[in-house]
Amino acid sequence: MSNAVFIKQHFGHAEKNNYLNVSKGWKSWAFTLDHKRIGVMYLIGITTALLLAGVFALVLRSELFIPGKMFLTEAQYNRMFTLHGAIMVFSFIIPSIPAALGNFVLPMMLGAKDVAFPRMNLMSFYLWVIGTFFLVVAMLTNSLDTGWTFYTPYSIRTSTGVVAATFGTFVLGFSSIFTGLNFLVTVNTMRAPGMTWFKMPLFVWGIYATAIIQVLATPILGITLLLLIAERVLQIGIFDPKYGGDPVLFQHFFWFYSHPAVYIMILPGMGIISDLMAVYCRKKIFGYSFIAFSSVAIAILGFLVWGHHMFTSGQSEVVTLIFSAITFSVAIPSAVKVFNWLATMYKGCISLVTPMLYAMSFIFLFGIGGLTGLFLGALRTDIHLHDTYFVVAHFHYVMVGGTLTALFGGLYHWWPKMFGRMYNELWGRIGCLLVFIGFNLTFFPQFVMGSRGMARRYARYDPEFQIFHQWSTVGALILGAGIVIAIATLVHAVFRGKLCGGNPFGAASLEWQSSSPPSFHNFDHKIVLNDPYDFDSQIYDPDLDSYVQRSFTVPGQEPVPGKPQTV
Amino acid sequence: MLKIPVSLLAQAEDLPIPEYQWGDYFFPVQAAEGAAENDFLFWAILWISTLFFVLIVVLMLYFAWKYRRRPGHEKALPSSSHNTSLEIIWSVIPSIILVWIFYAGANGYFQSRVAPESAEDIWVTAQQFSWTFTYADGDSTPSELHLVVNRPVKFTMESRDVLHSFFIPAFRQKQDIVPGRYTYTWVKPTKIGTFRLYCAEYCGDNHSLMIANVTVHATEEDRKAATKWDWDLYAQTDPVKNGQRLFQLNCAGCHKIDGQRSTGPPLNGIWGKQEPVLSGTRLVDEEYIRESILNPNAEIVSGYTTPSQMQSFDGKLNDDQIMWLIFYIKSLADK
Q1: Which run of H or E residues covers position B41?
Q2: Which of A146, A260, A304, B257 could cross-link A155 (Cys pair, CB 3.0–4.6 Å)?
Q3: B63–A387: do the CB atoms touch at under 8 Å?
Q4: Does the ipTM surpass 0.90?
Q5: A535 vs B76: CB contact, 8 Å cut-off?
Q6: Residue B185 to chain A, least CA–CA distance (Å)
Q7: How far is the C-alpha of B240 from the C-alpha of A112, rounded, in Å?
């Protein structure tokens, strides 16, 4: 086989015999063990959850356009924000990047054929489906109104469907644990020969640090929710003072999971941004080991700061002081990452395509999200700002401005790999711009009204806050339009996009050493290990309009089918 | 003086909305000790953050423009991929700034937590979805907190049901109220006027209506005039007024008087009518009202939750007080 034919077959566009069409029929998807198909199914699932929870957000933002009642009663409003928060957190953000993109990309980045436990991977997806089903049905039929935090004793006394909803969340927790465990074992045991820890792409480091948290923290949530169910059903006296329990104990348990969960949400996003920065600046990432270690440092420190959600809860002053101090220590590794990304851009060769625009948008929005955390970490100012819209704006800047932006950046980056087709650049950029403008318009006014005293979870409000709420509502509509355009552009690409080769962006990590879309086995040839940030290793091939690893282009050195090899 | 039971009280919609008093751009007026310190720290963090943020964004945009991929620039320029001293510098400088923010925040926090010895005591009772304030001389006020300017107050707070949070933005003070224990906070108001008090911890359906007004008076006499209620006088002259006051203190959080349904049924226009109850219908008369106050589960109105969310007032209201409440509900017959 000549070199050109070999390259076209293994690094070009794979019209036939890719993972999407290797087998047909719904059973070939429903019972698939292929990490790529599971990743795609997860992607469809989380996108559905995102749109559903997004609609609830638009409903409640519309209600807030005027101070008094527009079309929702107070009780209906409370159900709306509970639906929005619970679906977004448990069914969308937590599984989003690891389970959808991570599933697809991580094994290929390691040069592996699949994850360590493919059956467990499929099980994780079905647990997600079951958990989400329970959560959504419980909330819609029994109108859950506790907020996503399930704070006691209200969650014990309300007549709404707490047991079914917490059961759904409990199942979703297992889905998350399965994904985390799978990725831990995969990264530890299935790296291509020669790929040492510090030759892994930074997205893998992000996912690995996330997986540690998923495995260690999620069981706490499971136990807490079971105790909550037990308290409701059996009145055993743990959380409700009526039976001798302590409601603040629930908050400790809840945040012992839910604060690390914030890092489950953001660490994979940071991993994506690190890789996007390098690829689109065509430059080795600056301070690789600092970024890698900062992910692990954030994961560890993230376990020690849960009390900063509870500065006004009545916990002791000394405990409060300690939590404030540790909280500030988490700021450092996050700041270091931002500086490293900037240094990567310095003297780079920067391509301002859609994924890079999302990466820059991430730095802007995550910058605001991170810096406003300082106001909340400082005890004096937190007393005033706690449970106001300032907090709402802060965590939306981190979770939406951070995680959702990174997810879109990652999707646009890996979309040609996943479906073998290119998205429309113009519409990609329009979507990104609208998301950016709409997001800032929605959430920046919330900082101002929060510090002026607008409390969270209010269906009605005093007239002086109205102008900020109106900006915010208009922004939410623009943000919604931006998200729909961004998703529509991706969907359009799947069916109508321009065909593309195996590595259109010239990225150097291993997942690009394959055809687009990849074959069922990912790699049908020996892969060649190179530094994931050495972009000189990729040679442009005009025939394919795509890049190919240098070794494969040398005549007489045709790599052969078989197991991965190291060069 | 009559002992007044402390529990549910007036509806927030009935409260006048005080005029919002501006402070600087991010805050309402500074109306208590500690507010200026809080605002100073906020602005200090804001300026530090703005400095770093502008630096980051300007560099990002500058690099994106200067090093954009274009004909003649299709390869990254040679540069180092790591620089230990640079990385240490940009870790250590932010760390020093963070230590200062932590210290300033902790310092202000302890000042906001420890009440001076001279502080007067006021009890705060929070209940879905209303506030009651009880003063050292035994007076109680529903939905209105009355303070004296420059006089520090220590609040001892209890919740009758779920979590609530005591939040006065103009005083920059907040403390959760936890059922089953007392929590404490304090303020020293420095400005005469009326301000808002919000419940900041989600507590159920009408959480956003759980609001009170805080009025700061110039003198103790002005305050006393606002909190005083002469039960004996009205018992002689106009018992309906006593009934109305008791209604505001005890019932108005769940029962409206404008025909709207709330946690409980509205109590206007029901006197002398047949009310649909679970076992059929029931004539609303003195006996039914007395029974409903003492044993809420006896005859629950159709369409409301079973068992009733209302607690029994047996032992909390005496016979005179029940009589005044009956007078009051009777006076609402045609409304």
Answers
A1: helix B35-66
A2: A146
A3: no
A4: yes
A5: yes
A6: 10
A7: 82
